[in-house]
Fold this sequence. Notes:
Blueprint: E1 11-16, H1 19-42, H2 46-68, E2 71-76, E3 80-85, E4 88-93, E5 98-104, E6 115-121, E7 126-132, H3 135-154
Amino acid sequence: MKLRRDxxxxxxEGLRLRRWIVLSGWPLALVAAATGVAVAGLTRDxxxxxxxxxxxxxxGTLIAALVxxxxxxxxxxxSLLTLGAGPFRRRMPVGVLEHxxxxxxxxxxxxxxxxxxxxxxxxxxDTVALPTADPEALQGALLEARTTRRSSxxx
Length: 155
């Protein structure tokens, strides 16, 4: 997240992939990649080469995903909220987040936390959910950012 030099983040939360995903994902990825390379290199059959290539690609993709998506970061600045997981980033103004709802994490957010804080985006008819280990601190920082933004805009 890019902040101006005079801005400090109001809240930062860095969530790591769950331990069981890392502990099971690395061996699975390495075995798939190694098996794929071995099958492709040792067979003289085109079908064996194709299967080996697919296994190697799956293993390589898993390795890349484990490396790139090892952290999910939430940064609340005075005016913007940034959610980032691996190469994916989503920025949104703090003022558009309304009606917070704490719920059990679902979808990809379960890979990082048990809970998520969901917000409505009425202007877009969408919902944004943020995985969080500390929902009270995140909600407090967002409230502070909204209050600071309103007071600076009116003053």
